[in-house]
Amino acid sequence: MNFDYAVIGTGIQALVVLDRMRALGLNACGVEPESRTADGQVHRLPFYVHRGHCYAERELAGPLRDTYANWQNMIRRLGVKIRSTESYVGFTGDSSRWTQTWDALDIPYAQTSLKTGLLSAHRLSEAYAFPHMSFDGRELLARLRQANRDFLMGGAIRHVSRCWQGYRLFVGDRLITAKKLIVCAGAHLPGVLEALPDVEARLPVQTRVCQVLTMRGPVPNASIVVPDAQMSIAPQYTADGSTVLLYTHGANPIRTDKNHRIDIARLELQLDALRATLPGLSDTGRVRGIYMTLETESAAFGGKGTRTGRRFVEQVDDDVLCVLPGKPSFAMNASDELLSLLNAGRRSAQETECAAEPSYFAAARIRHAFEGAQHRA
């Protein structure tokens, strides 16, 4: 089976990339080398798409605003059910850094005085409403797989080698050739790169530990972020359609041997912040659970000053591009950057071919002139 591109990965980023490439008519396939390991992240985290309302930095808010329409089009085309559009951003202090960014980027928002539902008896200094999409991430994955099922190859990658066409991959019981590889492997990115022949690049990743508190019962089907208090609450949906609110608080630490277990001190801070900020929700969400989940990102994103100005794609070889792991919200931005690079590469190849044509015709004219001169002689 011959393709121009093989997208390697099992998660939301790989499927978004493949879906958009196929929609543009590119000859691409998806290779799912693991047993859908990334499903765990979607199963254990809420999935909603926003216009950048979490960020005060224009370099972060702007890209999310720009790709919101692309998410809308994909969700509509795949028939994914939108479960909620009720979303808020609250502040315990001054919100001017954020509102100035929203105004500069024309991100829609409206101040609200509500103290019902998710905002019941809130003690925020300011609260704003946003119309954003919340849906079941598992449904999105299932719809993407269904839409691209004829081009998804599942199974262990048993061997990878170079060939004149680019790369030859033995995936399960299939032989695939591809001119270029697109690696969207998340936490498995270093291992995939090590398996590729003649590729020396090493792109380190890091894993962050996220402590999630679940709230059940008669909870609102809505989301809220309190950026200056590092609070995030968003819905997830069970098999019967009921809502579970997932609540995180504080900056997620990089994983070490000491911090991948439940942190009781952090849990107490989490509960104290909830009671102090959203006491109505604290009283309503009585049935609670707690678990740890892991989020993988490029190590280049974790240092001081690297939140802005980031790249999403790294070209590690002439025929290998890597989509760096990060937040699912930026999956559309990463695919935009990738498609732009691929398009630039195709234009460059076409220009090279066009530049070569005059040389060919010039050589033909010289040959004909030489043959004519011999004939006349």
Automatic annotation (TrEMBL):
Recorded GO MF terms: oxidoreductase activity
Gene3D superfamilies assigned to the protein according to its UniProt record, in alphabetical order: D-Amino Acid Oxidase, subunit A, domain 2, FAD/NAD(P)-binding domain
Domain of life: Bacteria
InterPro entries the UniProt entry points to: FAD/NAD-bd_sf
Stated name of the protein: FAD-binding oxidoreductase
Species name: Trinickia terrae
